[in-house]
């Protein structure tokens, strides 16, 4: 446990450092983005136009990375009471079109009420990371995304009351080797599109809410039964109901 704590403190320190670097990079990056845009507009007939477009795409990618780091580390707003199912739905609405195009079937198994006192922006970001990853895992080829929300009176591990959220996909799954690294910053298996920050940020957001995460994953084609041949991943998180002063009392 000590080892795990040291590791997570190290990661948090690395994260703060990365965020301050991201902050420094952001202004010149914005300048470069604007300059590239001007060049793009001015040199529409230039043979160098494809290079300008490539440069724009690469700069946009850097931008995504710095934004992601900054969004997490910027001063949090005050925590508030939220409805977990509504938060999930607001995130889902961002992905519905893409999911439909990919023939991903979305199954919502919500309980009627799931109130949670939390940092809502970060909670939304957390859900977004899991849902985006699930959809990526089912691209192309489609599949099924199951979102389950349950109210738990007494969590088996912690004995606390809270909300359990499950995000399950029938996608490619992960190898054991991949599973070992997914919470490290910048670890990604998506060469062109990944930042490797999603799960790292998610773990930090969960820790801030005293939440717990469980992961099960089967690699596609790895098992002998029909289900395991198909592959898939299940993330289950438990978010304890906290007294308001507990979250308020925490440094943001
Ligand atoms: P990114 O999505 O940018 O790669 P993440 O930190 O969100 O960064 O995820 C890290 C890696 O974890 C992914 O590249 C992928 O290999 C693996 N992963 C995460 N979620 C899933 C999932 N639902 N199914 C399969 N692999 C996943």
TrEMBL record:
Boundaries of every Histidine kinase domain copy: 20-243
Predominant localisation class: membrane
GO CC aspect terms: membrane
Record localization: Membrane
Keywords: ATP-binding, Kinase, Membrane, Nucleotide-binding, Phosphoprotein, Transferase, Transmembrane, Transmembrane helix, Two-component regulatory system
Statement: the UniProt record of this protein carries the keyword Chaperone: no
GO MF terms held by the record: ATP binding; phosphorelay sensor kinase activity
Protein name: histidine kinase
Organism whose genome encodes this protein: Silvibacterium dinghuense
Part of the intact protein present: 374 to 625 of 633
């Amino acid at each position: 446990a000590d080892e795990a704590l040291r590791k997570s403190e190290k990661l948090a320190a690395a994260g703060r450092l990365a965020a301050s670097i991201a902050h420094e990079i952001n202004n010149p990056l914005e300048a470069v983005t604007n300059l590239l845009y001007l060049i793009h507009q001015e040199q529409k007939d230039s043979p160098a136009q494809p290079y300008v477009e490539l440069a724009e795409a690469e700069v946009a990618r850097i931008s995504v990375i710095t934004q992601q780091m900054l969004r997490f580390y910027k001063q949090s707003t005050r925590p508030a009471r939220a409805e977990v199912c509504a938060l999930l739905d607001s995130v889902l609405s961002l992905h519905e079109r893409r999911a439909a195009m990919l023939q991903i079937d979305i199954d919502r198994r919500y309980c009627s009420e799931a109130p949670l006192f939390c940092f809502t922006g970060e909670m939304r970001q957390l859900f977004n990371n899991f849902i985006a990853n699930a959809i990526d895992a089912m691209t192309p080829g489609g599949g099924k995304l199951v979102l389950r929300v349950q109210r738990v009176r007494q969590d088996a591990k912690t004995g606390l009351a809270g909300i359990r959220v499950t995000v399950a996909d029938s996608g490619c799954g992960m190898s054991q080797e991949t599973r070992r690294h997914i919470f490290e910053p910048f670890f990604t298996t998506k060469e062109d599109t990944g930042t490797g920050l999603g799960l790292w940020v998610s773990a930090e957001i969960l820790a801030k809410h005293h939440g717990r995460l469980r992961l099960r994953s089967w690699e596609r084609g790895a098992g002998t039964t029909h289900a395991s041949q198909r592959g898939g991943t299940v993330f289950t998180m438990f978010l304890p109901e906290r007294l308001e002063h507990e979250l308020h009392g925490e440094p943001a």
